[in-house]
Amino acid sequence: MKRIAIDMDGVLADVYHQFFKMDEAEFGQRRKLQDVEGKPEREGFPHIMEYVNTKGFFRTAPLIAGCVPIVKEINQQYDLYIVSAAMEFPLSLPEKLEWLAEHFPFITWQQIVFCGSKQIIRADIMIDDHFRNLDSFTGDTSLLFSQPHNIQSDPGRHQRVNNWEEISKILL
């Protein structure tokens, strides 16, 4: 059975929704997606570190559309792991664990990997929205999940996916 590693933030959890919501609350105006496209997250949202260190940021992130039923099916056909570089934000650990338990109750604690660097991850397939994680990936298939910070970049050796329906067509 092939092993698959799926990133959490930006692939399962809609953190951009959180960024825009908190940015609007702080500055009184909702910016458009085009305002941040092609910019690293820290450039697009100058106060991002405050946002991600706010209690509830990770716990209340909405789901990326369509992910739950497709991840459930992937879980039945692959050796699935949810992999998050959560150590960068240590306060996020309990929130991410609770979020996963709520939205993905079929994923066991043994299938959750919170790490610092994803370079240690060994799998056949990885789905992530950051080049820094995919570029060091040594597996067979790397899927770059489209997000504003990577949308204008050439995916290079990675295959770009724009939504969970596209992932379903590739993997199921």
Keywords:
172 residues, Rossmann fold, six-stranded parallel beta sheet, 33% helix, alpha/beta, 6 strands
Task: Characterise this structure.
- This protein has a six-stranded parallel beta sheet.
- The model has no long low-confidence stretch (mean pLDDT 96).
- The longest helix has 13 residues, at 15-27.
- The chain has helices at 15-27, 41-44, 48-52, 67-77, 92-103, 131-134, 164-171, and strands at residues 3-7, 79-84, 112-114, 125-128, 141-145, 159-161.
- The protein is globular, with a radius of gyration of 15 Å.
- The protein is an alpha/beta fold and 172 residues long.
- It has a single domain, classed as HAD superfamily/HAD-like (Rossmann fold).
- It starts with a strand and ends with a helix.
- InterPro entries: 5'(3')-deoxyribonucleotidase, HAD-like_sf, HAD_sf.
- This is 5'(3')-deoxyribonucleotidase.
- It holds the Pfam family NT5C.
- It comes from Terrimonas ginsenosidimutans.
- Belongs to the 5'(3')-deoxyribonucleotidase family.
